[in-house]
Write a structure and sequence with these properties.
Shape: flat
Radius of gyration: 73 Å
Strand order of the largest sheet: 1-2
Structural class: mainly alpha
Distance between the termini: 38 Å
Largest sheet: 2 strands, antiparallel
Helix content: over 70%
Order of helices and strands: HHHHHEEHH
Length: 376
């Protein structure tokens, strides 16, 4: 990679020198009044296209060389990594074999602390129940942990069996006593129920006799009450007929008009209506009210018609004024459009004149440089 740097710099310097010479030749052709032509420089464009193709081919070749070197370097790195992995694997295998053959667990000083067979090799904590090593502070022997545990458990099971048999026998005796007591209680309850039923039967007979006597007494009372009600009903009917007769013959139901005349004038609570003369006077007054109301309605109709006529005239005048105002607005808008069109034409002419002045003041070299740039 270090050898490619100077060669690339030389190629770039040569390409720059060729571009500089072509630019000087092109300037000579453009600024020479004898050979200058109007339009584009086709030879210069062809030279630029050719130079561009050469440059692209050189760049492509450069990229291919660089890619070739990159592939070569990648293969080399893969081989080196594979070699390193094999070396590390061989080193780990050799280290494991060395540990296995020359550094076993039994060669360590603390192997007795981590020996898996230490409990099998060690002496038991208690040899017998009277072992002098089993002190109170050592806590190697507790209640129920003696060596004759099997014999003691067998004796305890036999003792528990005897206790169970005794409890079953006591339970049978208790059940027999309970059954005897239940039988005696059932006999007592049956005799008590018989006596209670006998007392209920006697009480039912006495209650039935009392009900019969009460029913007979109620029948007598009902008969007496019916006779009394019939007498009261007949007397009430007689009194009602007398009252109806008196009311029919009285001044209230007969509507006698003379009963409303009192010493101080008409009695309101006894007045039964007006006579024909009073009714005719009221009808005449009502007719006058109707005629007066018709005259008022006619006047109101005439006043509304006058108001409608004035409102129509005002609306017509307003409509004429609005039309006149619209015509004036249209005339003013046309005049304003004509003035704006004239101002627009003047502005466009002024802009064209300013652009022509600007182009006339540009130097010849700058003009051709802008022309060449635009053609490219």
């Amino acid at each position: 990679m270090s050898g490619l740097g100077p060669q690339r710099e030389l190629e770039e310097a040569a390409a720059l020198e060729r571009r500089r010479r072509r630019e000087l030749l092109r300037r000579g052709r453009i600024f020479n009044a004898r050979i200058r032509t109007i339009g584009i420089d086709k030879d210069a464009l062809d030279a630029q296209v050719k130079e561009r193709k050469i440059q692209e081919a050189a760049e492509k070749a450069e990229h291919e060389r660089f890619a070739h070197h990159m592939k070569k370097n990648d293969k080399l790195m893969c081989l080196l990594e594979e070699r390193q992995k094999n070396e590390i694997r061989d080193l780990n295998r050799a280290l494991t074999e060395f540990h296995k053959n020359f550094q076993g667990p039994e060669t360590r000083r603390e192997f007795d602390l981590n020996d898996p067979q230490a409990l099998k090799k060690d002496r038991p904590a208690r040899v017998s129940d009277d072992d002098p090593r089993c002190t109170i502070s050592g806590m190697q022997k507790f209640v129920g942990e003696d060596l004759n545990h099997d014999q003691r458990m067998k004796f305890q099971k036999e003792q528990i069996r005897e206790w169970s048999l005794q409890q079953q026998k006591d339970l049978k005796n208790a059940l027999a006593d309970q059954k005897l007591a239940d039988d005696l209680y059932d006999k007592f309850r049956i005799e008590l129920d018989r006596k209670i039923m006998e007392e209920q039967r006697k009480e039912e007979e006495s209650r039935r006799a009392v009900c019969t006597a009460t029913k007979n007494f109620n029948k007598i009372q009902v008969a007496e009450l019916d006779h009394k009600n019939e007498l009261e009903k007949a007397q009430k009917m007689k009194d009602d007929m007398y009252e109806i007769t008196c009311l029919l013959r009285g001044d209230f139901l007969s509507e006698n008009p003379d009963q409303a005349i009192g010493p101080g004038g008409v009695l309101v609570d006894r007045w039964k209506g007006m006579n024909q003369e009073q009714l005719m006077a009221i009808r005449e007054f009502q007719k006058e009210q109707v005629l007066e109301k018709q005259r008022a309605r006619e006047q109101e109709r005439r006043r509304d018609a006058e108001w409608d006529r004035q409102r129509v005239q005002a609306a017509r005048a307003q409509l004429l004024w609005e039309r006149h105002q619209q015509r004036q607005d249209q005339v003013q808008r046309r005049d304003l459009d004509a003035v704006n069109a004239g101002l627009s034409q003047e502005q466009k002419a002024k802009n064209i004149y300013l652009k022509e002045e600007e182009y006339s003041n540009i130097p010849t070299e700058e003009f051709y440089a802008q022309f060449n740039t635009s053609t490219r």
